[in-house]
Design goal:
heterodimer, A: alpha/beta, Immunoglobulin-like, 3 domains, four-stranded antiparallel beta sheet, 8 helices, disordered N terminus, B: alpha/beta, eleven-stranded mixed beta sheet, 10 helices
Chain lengths: ~300, ~375
């Protein structure tokens, strides 16, 4: 059953409320869930595919969201984005647990899916419907994973300092991937404590990330985002195709998101959460890169490009 | 329209400006549009401005314009600019019945100050008089919340469009993804400012109707600032902290095709003005009443006159000059909205001279011919 196998890779609801809430889950269309250890049998009797989950053993993911610091007066102020991509890149084999407050469960599911990690998501009851819609959306576009694409190889020392650097690289769509040693397939290789990347420079992770951006140059970046500063991207691909995962951390739908992907591609295909009939607009090739517009982007969109 | 893709890369300011201490960022202009044989800016009347003053054009107490007086000002101004005896002939120099005309209003200070509906209505009336269909006239601005407060529709004939690019701030669907200026001022992620789609794919002509306003970043905001920052997306990124890149960005945007070629007329509405706190106007104590309208095709020449109008008023009010760049008057987090001697940014009134270096008009006062008219 290939579909059943693939479904296992989708994020899963973690539900620790009484079994009397079963109708809430049924009404939302939830069939599969994680429950605290010892409660799986009672939920199975209710007809759910319930599995035990020990949240204490999972890595904690932050609730994905945007924080607007309105007290910072600047026309170019950039909102803070709480995102987990850097954690997922760092420990892709771990299981993650989200305690997602109301309004964030669907984005959490999309985020875990985009990075291909196992995740249990504790959702608020009012989030069950959008969470279930997101799972349905993800299940329809699920496919075997392609290799991660990145500009920057990171020799990760596991330090908190490096964690902040990785966070800022993710935040600014500077695509990286951990590597045990410098690899020529990347445009840049970063190792803290070297002459080129001294530890003290990383004490200011934003400046450090911008240094990397300048070294890489925007022209060489695999992906650029225009029209929003709260949409983050992840790329996977091989010699024949590229898949672009786009995550909107803001609450508002982005209208007219412009995306630039380095390389030559034919017509792309769009899957947009909550906008099933949406199609890419204004597709073009410029300077060895494909560009397209996503007319309306809610929480998540995926674009497949064929070379 | 015949199109040819061309890319421009501008690395530095002209030699005439190289001596200044302002850094000009590297701009990448992407546009598929060719310039017209004679671009609208500076147009057929470079270095010429018709300046019309009328004491009765607005009631200072109520801030209500007198429509009949405004009509007379606009008639006399257009005739003086063109030399035509009949005002219809004057307008017919700039538009034909088949044109689709965008009227770029300024509503950033609304409802305190904006392109007066009376002036806009008179502009529309003149366009219709030469045969432009109401359906071919578009009042346009970027932000819907600002325009909604003005209610232009109450002053306009049926069929005239009142249109905004951003029904919600930050939405980009109304901008042309293929026409933009790219630069990174402060390492911002989104490095593009895109031109409003209608400018390229709908309008054949544009009439620019700015106000007379002080501007905390640009020094003043007139023709150049209104047509540039008012026709492109994502422009606020040019300011950060106390630094603003308005010095070069305004002229660079205004020179992008097809905006430069299609902006054929400048009608500056100075019935009322703002001498401090602009471009906004939450505080009436900083509004004043020049009771003057300026007409021209050269945005640099018109704005050069505006510079003195605003700075003279500031001097009269014992406020620091728009040219003041001193640190002692600079406080980005200070009470600049209420204190005319506090600057939020190091102001860049030099943006007008910089625009002249891009060929957009005449900056030298000695070379600007002003036709002064009293109504």
């Amino acid at each position: 059953m290939p579909l059943a196998f693939l479904a296992v890779l989708l994020p899963t609801l973690f539900w620790d409320r009484p079994v009397e809430t079963a109708d809430l889950l049924r009404n939302a269309g939830i069939e599969r869930l994680f429950v605290p250890t010892g409660q799986e049998q009672v939920w199975r009797k209710q007809g759910f595919a319930a599995s035990p989950f020990d949240r204490a053993r999972a890595a904690q993911a932050v609730a994905p969201k945007v924080e607007y610091h309105m007290d910072v007066a600047s026309a170019t102020r950039v909102p803070w984005v709480d995102a987990n991509g850097w954690r997922f890149e760092r420990e892709p084999a771990r299981s993650f647990f989200y305690d997602a407050p109301a309004g964030s469960a669907a984005l959490a599911a999309a985020e875990a899916f985009a990075y291909g990690v196992d995740a249990a998501i504790r959702a608020a009851p009012e989030d069950l419907a959008p969470f279930a819609r997101m799972l349905k959306f993800l299940s329809e576009i699920d496919q075997p994973r392609l290799p991660v694409m990145a500009n920057i190889g990171v020799i990760d020392d596991g330090s908190d300092t490096m964690a902040e650097v990785l966070n800022l690289l993710t935040r600014h769509n500077l695509l990286f991937h951990p590597t045990p040693a410098a690899d020529a397939k990347y445009d840049l290789n970063i190792r803290l404590g070297t002459t080129e990347y001294p530890q003290e420079e990383a004490a200011n992770p934003y400046e450090f990330a911008m240094k990397i951006r300048h070294q890489l140059t925007d022209e060489k970046r695999l992906v650029r985002i225009f029209g929003s500063n709260v949409v983050l991207a992840r790329l996977t691909g091989d010699a024949s195709q590229v898949r672009v995962y786009l995550l909107n951390y803001g609450k508002a739908t982005v209208k007219g998101l412009r995306v630039r992907v380095l390389g030559s591609f034919e017509h792309g295909k769009l899957w947009a959460y909550e906008h099933p009939h949406a199609a890419l607009e204004d597709e073009s090739m410029q300077d060895d890169a494909a560009e397209f517009t996503i007319p309306e982007m809610a929480t998540h969109a995926v674009v497949d490009l064929r070379r | 329209m015949h199109r040819r893709k061309f890319l421009q890369m501008t690395a530095a300011a002209s030699a005439a400006l190289a001596a200044t201490d302002r850094k000009v960022p590297k701009y990448r202009v992407v546009s598929h549009y060719q310039p017209a044989t004679q671009p609208g800016m500076p147009g057929p009347y470079p270095g010429q401005v018709a300046s019309v003053h009328a004491e009765k054009c607005i009631d200072e107490a109520t801030e209500r314009p007198d429509p009949a007086c405004v009509r007379e000002m606009m008639t006399r101004g257009m005739r003086a600019l063109t030399g035509d005896a009949d005002v219809r002939d004057a307008w017919a120099r700039f538009v034909t019945p088949s044109d689709v005309v965008g009227i770029k209003v300024n509503c950033s200070g609304a409802p305190g100050i904006m392109s007066s509906p009376v002036v806009v209505a008179e502009t529309v009336r003149n366009l219709v008089a030469v045969g432009v269909k109401p359906d071919g006239i578009w009042i346009y601005e970027r932000f819907q919340d600002q325009v909604d407060s003005v209610h232009y529709d109450r002053y306009l004939p049926e069929g005239v469009h009142v249109w905004t690019a951003e029904t919600r701030r930050g939405s980009t669907e109304s901008y042309d993804p293929a026409t933009y200026v790219e630069t990174a001022f402060f390492d911002e992620d989104d490095t593009r400012s895109n031109l409003i789609r209608l400018v390229g794919n709908r309008f054949t002509k544009i009439v620019n109707v700015p106000n007379m306003k002080d501007h905390g970043a640009a020094g003043v905001t007139g023709c150049l600032k209104n047509i540039a920052y008012g026709s492109f997306s994502n422009v606020a990124r040019s300011h950060s902290g106390s630094v603003t890149n308005t010095y070069s960005f305004i002229g660079k945007l205004a020179s992008v095709e097809p905006l430069r070629s299609r902006t054929v007329l400048q009608v500056m509405d100075g019935l009322r003005g703002v001498w401090h706190g602009g471009p906004f106007s939450p505080n009436r104590k900083f509004r004043f009443y020049p009771k003057r309208m300026l007409f021209g095709t050269d945005p640099v020449a018109v704005d050069r006159l505006l510079l003195d109008i605003i700075d003279d008023k500031r001097k009269a009010e014992h406020a620091v000059s728009v040219w003041d760049r001193s640190a002692k008057h600079l406080n980005a987090a200070g009470d600049h909205d209420n204190n005319p001697n506090v600057n939020q940014f190091v102001r860049e009134p030099g943006h007008i001279e910089y625009a002249a270096s891009l060929g957009l008009g005449t900056y030298d006062l000695d070379k600007i011919k002003v036709k002064s008219i009293e109504v």
